[in-house]
Write a structure and sequence with these properties.
Elements: E1 2-11, E2 15-18, H1 19-22, H2 30-37, E3 41-44, H3 51-66, E4 75-79, H4 90-97, E5 104-108, H5 114-127, E6 133-140, H6 150-156, H7 166-174, H8 176-179, E7 185-194, E8 200-208, E9 216-217, H9 231-235, E10 242-243, H10 245-266, E11 276-279, H11 284-294, H12 299-302, H13 307-310, H14 317-327, E12 336-343, E13 347-354
Parallel strand pairs: 4-5, 4-6, 11-12
Antiparallel strand pairs: 1-7, 2-3, 6-7, 8-13, 9-10, 12-13
C-alpha cells in the first residue's frame, strides 16, 4: 500500500504588495530586495483574517479538487508559525470552518519544515490504518508579525497616499532584513491510501537539532517569562523574530541537499534520478546554491522556485509550489519528486514521492 496525493488547493489574500511599494515605506529598493532574496512581491492578509481562515479555504479547495466531501476526511494536520490564537491552535479552528466533523486534528510547530513533517505524519497515520483520508495544510498570516506602524499599513493598503510617519519609516527600515521576505497564504493536500506500493510516498527522513534554535527565534512572549507578556518585553521588541541570516543560509544549503541524498540512497536511488526537487522557498539564493550542490545541468527546471511571486510563506511554501507546478502541467504521472525543507528549531528533512 502507498499514500498518494489525490487533491490540492491554495488560498491567497487579495492584497499584493510589490518591492516598489515597500520602498515607499522603508529604506529599501526593488533591486536591494531582489538581489538578496529573489522576492518581487508578496500578499498580505486583511485585518481579522488569520492563518486559520486561509487554511480552511485551502482545505476546502483541496477537498473539492479531490472530488470528495468534507465528511470523508478523518484526519487533519495543521502546520503554522502564525496561529490565530495562542491557545487553542489552528487545527480545531480549521476543522470547524471547513465543516470536517469531530475528527482527529493535529497542530504541529516545525515552522518552515512544518508541511514536510505533516506529510510524513499523515503517511504514517494512513499506513497504520489509523486514518483513511487525511488533509495536510500549511497556512501563514505573517502580516500580524510585521513591524509596520499604522501609517505604513495605510499606505500599503491604499487607504492614503501620504508619506509615512518618520517613526514608522525608521521602524520598518530597522527590520527590513527579514520583513521584506515574508508573505501570507495557505496550501493543502488531500492524501489517501493506494493499493500500489510503488507509487505515492516511498519514504522520508526527518531531523531536528535544538542547538540551532537561535538561527530564527522569538525571545519574548513565552511561558518562561512571568507574566508571559508584559510591556517590558514589548518595549524591548522581544515579540519580534531574530534571525542569523548567514548561518541560516549555510545550514540550509547543506542540510536540505544532504537529506534529499540520504533518503534517495536509502531507496537505492541517486539524486540525479529525481525529476523534481520541491524545496522550501525561503530565499532564491538558497535555491540556487542547492542546484549547485546537486550538480544539475538543468537546475532551474529541476529545482523550481516561485518565491518571486509569494515571498516566504513558511509552512505554506511547499503546497503553494506544488500547486503552481500542477497549474503549469509540470507534475506528470511517473515522475519521482522529493519534498525538502529547513525550518526554525532547527527542523529539516526530505521525502520521496512517485506521482501516480
Amino acid at each position: 500500500m502507498g499514500t498518494v496525493i489525490v487533491g490540492s488547493g491554495t488560498a491567497l489574500p487579495e492584497l499584493e504588495v510589490s518591492n516598489d511599494q515597500l520602498a515607499e515605506v522603508m529604506d529599501t529598493s526593488d533591486e536591494w530586495i531582489r538581489s538578496r532574496s529573489g522576492v518581487h512581491m508578496r500578499r498580505y492578509s486583511d485585518p481579522g483574517t488569520g492563518s486559520a481562515t486561509l487554511g480552511a479555504q485551502a482545505v476546502l479547495a483541496a477537498i473539492a479538487d479531490a472530488g470528495i466531501s468534507p465528511d470523508e476526511v478523518d484526519l487533519l494536520i495543521s502546520a503554522t508559525m502564525t496561529p490565530d490564537l495562542l491557545a487553542p491552535g489552528n487545527a480545531p479552528l480549521i476543522q470547524h470552518q471547513a465543516n470536517l466533523g469531530p475528527i482527529a486534528a493535529f497542530d504541529i510547530r516545525q515552522q518552515c519544515a512544518g508541511f514536510l513533517y505533516g506529510l510524513e505524519l499523515a503517511d504514517a497515520m494512513l499506513s497504520s490504518g489509523r486514518a483513511t483520508t487525511a488533509v495536510v495544510v500549511g497556512a501563514e498570516a505573517h502580516a500580524g508579525y510585521l513591524p509596520f506602524g499604522p501609517s505604513v499599513w495605510g499606505r500599503l493598503r491604499g487607504e492614503h497616499a501620504n508619506p509615512v510617519s518618520d517613526a514608522d519609516y525608521q521602524q520598518a527600515t530597522k527590520y527590513r532584513a527579514w520583513s521584506v521576505l515574508f508573505g501570507d497564504g495557505a496550501g493543502a493536500m488531500v492524501l489517501r491510501r493506494d493499493p500500489d506500493p510503488t507509487r505515492g510516498f516511498l519514504g522520508g527522513r526527518l531531523f531536528s537539532d535544538g542547538s540551532l534554535f537561535d538561527l530564527i527565534w522569538v525571545e519574548g512572549v513565552g511561558f518562561r517569562h512571568q507574566p508571559y507578556v508584559d510591556q517590558t518585553q514589548l518595549d524591548a521588541e522581544m515579540h519580534l523574530p531574530s534571525m542569523n541570516g548567514m548561518e541560516l543560509f549555510r545550514q540550509a544549503v547543506r542540510l536540505m541537499p544532504d537529506s534529499v541524498a540520504a533518503v534517495a540512497d536509502e531507496h537505492g536511488l541517486r539524486v540525479n534520478d529525481l525529476d523534481l526537487v520541491l524545496a522550501h522557498q525561503a530565499n532564491e539564493r538558497i535555491i540556487a546554491a542547492m542546484r549547485k550542490q546537486f550538480g544539475f545541468d538543468d537546475g532551474e527546471d529541476r529545482v523550481p522556485c516561485n518565491i518571486a511571486h509569494h515571498g516566504n510563506t513558511t509552512a505554506a511554501t511547499l503546497p503553494l509550489l506544488y500547486q503552481d507546478l500542477r497549474d503549469e502541467s509540470r507534475i506528470v504521472p511517473g515522475q519521482l519528486l522529493s519534498f525538502t525543507a529547513f525550518g526554525a528549531g532547527a527542523h529539516w528533512g526530505a521525502n520521496l514521492y512517485r506521482v501516480p
